[in-house]
Each structure stands twice: as C-alpha cells, then as structure tokens.
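User: Some background: our group keeps a shared notebook of sequences we're curious about, and every so often someone picks one and asks for a predicted structure to add to the entry. Today it's my turn. The entry only has the sequence so far, pasted here. Could you supply the structure so I can complete it?
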Amino acid sequence: MSSPSEAVPKRTKLQNGGLIAGFLLLIAILLIPTAPTLTSAGHRMIAILFFSIVIWMTSAISYPVSATMITALTAMLLGTSPDMANPAKLMGTKNALSLAISGYSNTAWALVAAAMFISVAMTKTGLDRRIAISVLSKVGTKVSRIYIGVIATGFILSFFVPSSTARLACLIPIILGIIENLGVNKHSRFASLLVIGAAQADTLWNIMVQTAAAQNLIAVGFINSQLHTHISWLNWLLAAAPFSLIMVVIYYFLSLKLIKPEFSELPGGKEQIQRMKDAMGPMSFDEKKLLTISIILLGFWATGGKLHSFDTSTTTIVAIALFFMPGIGIMDWKFAQPRIGWGSIVMFGVGISLGTALLKTKAALWLADAFINAFSLDQAGALALIAIIAAFLILIHLGFASATALAAAMIPIVISIFQRVALPGIDAAAATMILQFSVCFGFILPVNSPQGMVAYSSDTFEVKDFIKTGVPITIIGYILLVVMAATYWHWLGYV
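Assistant: Of course. Here's the predicted structure to add to the notebook entry:
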C-alpha cells in the first residue's frame, strides 16, 4: 500500500478533457485532405503542433510526458509519410526520429542544461541567498525601500542565476521569513505586494537578460539556425534594457498604488534582516569560488563576438566543468544529479525539435502564409506587423503555463512570417527578438509562468490580486513595445 505522499495526484476534468481534445484534434487535422501547397509531412507536423498546443494549454499531462508523446508522434507520423526529397519513398522512422530529437544537438539546449547546474551550485553554496540578504540589509525599514530591495535583488540574480524559478525559490523564503519573524500577517497587502512584485519584476528581468530565461535561448537558437544570424548577449541587453527598466519603474509605482500596503514602515525590519545575514556567517571558500567563476563567465557572455569568439554555450559548459573538477570544484555529480530538472531539459530539447521539424517540413512557412493572409500582413507596414504579431502572442500566452512552450511553438512561425513578408528596413532577426519580449509576458495569471506559480504557492495572495496589477501592466507593456518599435528600436535599425 502506497503512502499518502506517494499517491498519484487526482486528474482534473480539464486535464482529461484536454488530453481527449488533443487527440481528437490531431485525428481531425490528419483526416483533412492535404492542401496542394503543403507537403504530407508538413500536414502531419501541423497536426502534431496543434495537439501539442492543446495539451500544453490544458496541462493535460506533465511537460516531460508530453515531450515523450510528441517525440513518438513525430517519429511515427513523419516516418510513415512520403519523403519530401523523393515522394515515391517513405521518410522512414529512423530519419523521422533523428528529426524528432534534433533539438538535443542544438547549442541553445546545451546552454539551458548547463544553466541548471549553475542554479544547483548557487543553492549548494547559498550564494544566491547571501546576495539577496545582503541587498535587503542595505535598504532600510520603509516599505517602499524594502520593495525596491526585493526588485533590485531579482535584477542582480538575473545575471547570475539563469532560471526565474530558481530566483523566486531563493527570494520568496527570505521574504516570508522577514514577514513571519516580525509578526506581519501572511495574508496582508504588504506580503502580497512583495511576493507579487518579486514575480512580476522577475518576468521583466527575463526580458532584459538573454540568459535569464530558457524561452530566450529557444528564440536565439531558431534565429541562429533559420536566419543564420547570431544575437550576442550584449546586443540583446542593449535592445531590451531600456524597455525592461522603464517597465519596472512603471510597475513599481503601479503596484504600490493598486496593492497599497497597510503601513509605510516596518519597525524592526532592518534588524531582522541583519540577524539573517549574521546567521549566515562569513563567506565560504566555495561561495568565493562560485562568485569568481560567475563573474568571469558573465564577462565572457558580455564580450562575446567583441573581444573573443567563444560562444555563450561553450563558455558556460567550461564553467560547469570547473564546478565539478576535483580539488577546485564546488560540487560532485552525486549532489547535483537529483537536483537537476531533467524533465525540463527533455521538454526543452523536444520543443526545439518540434520547431525544427515545422521548419524542415515547410509547415511553418505554410502556417506563416495562412497568418499573413488572415491579417493581410503583406499590406501592413513594419510597425503594424510587429503590433499585430505581438498582440497575438500576448493573447495566446493566456492559455500557456510556460513561455518556453510558447516560444517553441510560435517563434519558428514568427521567423517564417518575416521571411515571407520582406519589408524594407526590417531586420528579421532583431524583429524576432523584439517579439520574443512579448512571449515573455506572463503578467495576468499566476499559471502563465513558473515564477508566477512559485509566488502563488507562498499562499500570500489570491489570483484576483495578481490580476489586479497583471492586466494594466500587460496593456502598458504592449503599448510601450509598439512605441519603442517606432522609436528606439527603429533608431537602432531593427524595425
């Protein structure tokens, strides 16, 4: 008899319905006659894409399981379809499987996998917690300053911890510790403000820093493979930083207005944070080693393509190798292995594979043409093109629990649109990067992002509280994105 902790969670009606709907949609699309302008393989990939979207939107099954199912469907359906180069022959399951797992040879996948080890190293040494507490210890006792400290901590961690989930998982226990030790009600507006603000600001830091979120790396991977153009870490930062910083300032004042805390000062707050800092003791040798390696790694990221030719993935993997090196390393495999999100790594690889298969079978181009015709994008200007696609991505994100899944499904189609609509003065790679910013938008519901769900699990706020600031900042973010496309990004020659 299994213990309660080992019991399988009961599936919801939405999950069961989503799984059934996904398979029904898959079969329905497969039964539709193939369009004359579409290959049989492309037709089947469109069916797999919509199946994926439905099960991802409904959380019908876990992401690792969905990844396995998508791989199996791609191998079987493409394997039994006519070969695109020689329609008289079948593609064969061996060739189809190679395409279904092609994402695992992508450098972006390697970077995400390596980044997870950085997060584990941060957790083991406690360096992320030390950074957070050190920042908070300097802000004072005013609620507004504590709030600034929380946001600033997320900003600093976004450069060193390449996972929004890990950053929130580090920051929220510290916030809750301060609240509990000072006798503040866990369900107060003060607690809600700090936790919601930490999650929303984290989303904005995801936009700013290329390596802060997996979905950015998916976009970069497709830009590299499809457009044969590399967007460096520094160029991404220069493009995104003004947008993110303006949004953070706006969100700071907006959230203080909409989630007005009960008091303006937190007596004893500074002392409590100082006690937490003192309890950590002096900086350990492992922390110093990790900080040194992280700063050097950040330097390589920032100067890639300028001072050296080492790509971001390679320098990160070298850093991970140093983490494990006997004598100078920080951790061993036995410690790291159970703490790595292997399911997320599998999902990421399959996400890239799905996008690659959509491109190779010309399905992405066919869908791009359909989108262009539906919105008459061939007659739109560059700014209108950005505005329409961004609005679509923001709206569809409401149904996704992961920006990574959204990027995997949509970015290949976005790139194909820019390849089809060749507008003068628009840089397809840069425009895709700008639209990737909108893919990161997950402000409205906690379920729209992993960091939102981590925040919600703190039990400090209700969904309506999250929505209260989420809706207006989404609208403001969309307007600002369009404005910057017409000004700053236009001046840079991107749009």
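Suggested note for the entry: The first helix runs from residue 13 to 31. DSSP finds 23 helices and no strands in the chain.
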